[in-house]
Specification:
This protein is α/β, with parallel strands linked by helices. It folds into 2 domains: 6-58 and 367-413, Urease, subunit C, domain 1 (Roll); 59-342, Metal-dependent hydrolases (TIM Barrel, Alpha-Beta Barrel). Helix content is 33%, strand content 21%. The chain has helices at residues 83-93, 99-115, 133-144, 164-176, 191-207, 227-237, 256-269, 277-283, 299-304, 328-338, 347-362, 385-391, and strands spanning 6-12, 18-24, 27-33, 47-49, 55-57, 59-64, 118-126, 149-155, 180-183, 211-216, 243-247, 272-275, 309-311, 377-379, 397-400, 403-407, 413-416, 419-422. The strands form 4 sheets. Strands 6-7-8-9-10-11-12-13 form an 8-stranded parallel beta sheet. The chain has a 4-stranded mixed beta sheet with strand order 3-2-1-4, with no helix packed on it. A 4-stranded antiparallel beta sheet has the order 5-14-15-16, with no helix packed on it.
Length: 427
């Protein structure tokens, strides 16, 4: 990635302050009051007038599936809408996927992410699909698609306990260059097998000094309790800061006494949590009559306890979730509704999760909007965080290390009194 010097003029930070952001050699070298930066240092194509628009660090996407993305047209319909049928549908098509096709779809998905201001992506990839087509495609794409840092998770969808080859496939993926150990303990046939599943994969991660990110307790069943096993196993080994519990939707169904205990253990362990509001709003509650649960873990209680919580996109146009646009604000907008985080006082918490929470899950360094931080920034087509979340308009500008990598705009006019007036969605 070629870094550049760049100037963003007349932007607004999250506190409402107007600023100029000076980027030198790919890093933020100076933040001044709007109008105070020396514009003569920069050529016209290396400066941007934000016109008062919001500027933040770029987004990080902590949970998606680039290997399954956009395969919805290749698979039969998921008639029940359950995650279990989604697994079965994926299993019916994964052997037919080619490396070229997987790479093409994954690249398109990354371009969507980039257009929305994402410069880090953590993707799960099924290691039990034969031929290694998706893994090889993602490894190549990671090297070729410079604007986004891609972390790949070896995701064992099949049983680790009943099929010893699955564990070998995870290990082989690590040897090929995959970064992170995945897991899916609640898919094992019994509680005991699920516990063994977690222990085997944590041990493998420890042996390879690898991070972990498990699909865990992604169910409405209050008896599904594998997050506590992940916490215990990683704490005993002193590697809990390397672990992420993704989904953890059963937490919303636990009795309050047990939920309180688990949240406390999470807060003491440094295990992070990722909620995926879009897909889980669809697949959870499928076995309920009324009222129907909506698949959002206890975000407010986790954050109050000091647990790092991120917001993920999850599946996109596949057998589990047939919508999706690669925009973190879409997932955050869904969270605002289903987690009752729709009040103005909640806006800061949502943006903290989208930015610093997600970046922390990646272990990102020099991330933020301060001098010395990386010059990777997003200029929104809104002046404040609330309006940006509410309207979710195309990003005006995305910088990666001082280099423009995406830009967008949207203009709509309405006719009144025989004249066309440009419509603004700002208050």
């Amino acid at each position: 990635m070629v870094v550049r010097d760049y100037l963003i003029r007349n932007a607004t930070d999250r506190s409402g302050k107007r600023i100029d952001v000076v980027i030198t050699d790919g890093e933020i070298s100076n933040i001044r009051s709007a109008g105070d930066a020396d514009t003569t240092r920069f050529k016209p194509d290396t400066q941007f007038d934000a016109e008062g628009s919001l500027v933040t660090p770029t987004f990080s996407e902590p949970h998606t599936h680039l290997d399954t993305a956009m395969t919805v047209e290749k698979a039969r319909v998921n008639d029940s809408g359950t995650v279990e049928e989604g697994w079965d549908v994926w299993a019916s098509v994964r052997e037919e996927l080619t490396k070229a096709g997987a790479k093409r779809r994954a690249k398109k998905n990354l371009e969507w992410f980039l257009s929305n201001g994402v410069t880090r992506v953590r993707t799960h990839a099924d290691v039990t699909a034969s031929g290694w087509a998706a893994i090889e495609a993602l490894l190549e794409l990671r090297e070729e698609f410079d604007p986004i840092d891609v972390d790949i998770i070896a995701f064992p969808i099949d049983s680790v306990v009943d099929d010893p080859d699955t564990l070998d496939e995870v290990e082989q993926a690590l040897e090929m260059g995959v970064d992170i150990v995945g897991g899916l303990p609640h898919k094992e046939r019994t509680r005991e097998r699920g516990v063994e599943h977690v222990r085997k994969l944590v041990a493998l991660a420890d042996e390879n000094d690898a991070r972990m990110d498990f699909h865990i307790d992604e169910t409405d069943d209050p008896q599904c309790r594998f997050t506590e096993v992940l916490v215990d196993e990683t704490r005993r080994r002193g590697i809990s800061s390397l672990a992420t519990a993704s989904h953890a939707t059963a937490l919303h169904s636990y009795p309050n006494t047990y939920a309180s205990k688990l949240i406390y253990e999470l807060s003491q362990s440094d295990v992070s949590v990722v909620t995926n509001p879009l897909a889980n709003a669809i697949v959870q509650g499928r076995y309920d009559d009324y009222p129907k649960r909506r698949g959002i873990t206890r975000v407010d209680e986790l954050r109050e306890a000091g647990v790092t919580v991120g917001i993920g996109q999850d599946s996109l146009l596949d057998s589990t979730y047939q919508y999706g646009d690669g925009d973190p604000l879409t997932a955050a907008h869904m969270l605002a509704h289903f987690a009752h985080m729709n009040l103005r006082r909640d806006v800061g918490d949502i943006w903290d999760m989208l930015t610093y929470g997600n970046a922390d899950i990646f272990g990102a360094e020099n991330y933020g909007l301060s001098e010395g931080d990386e010059g990777s920034l997003v200029v929104f087509d809104s002046s404040d965080p609330f309006t940006a979340l509410r309207t979710r308009r195309p990003r005006k500008l995305v910088l990666r290390d001082g280099k423009p990598v995406a830009k967008g705009s949207r203009s709509v006019s309405v006719r009144s009194d025989d004249s066309w007036d440009e419509l603004t969605l700002d208050l």
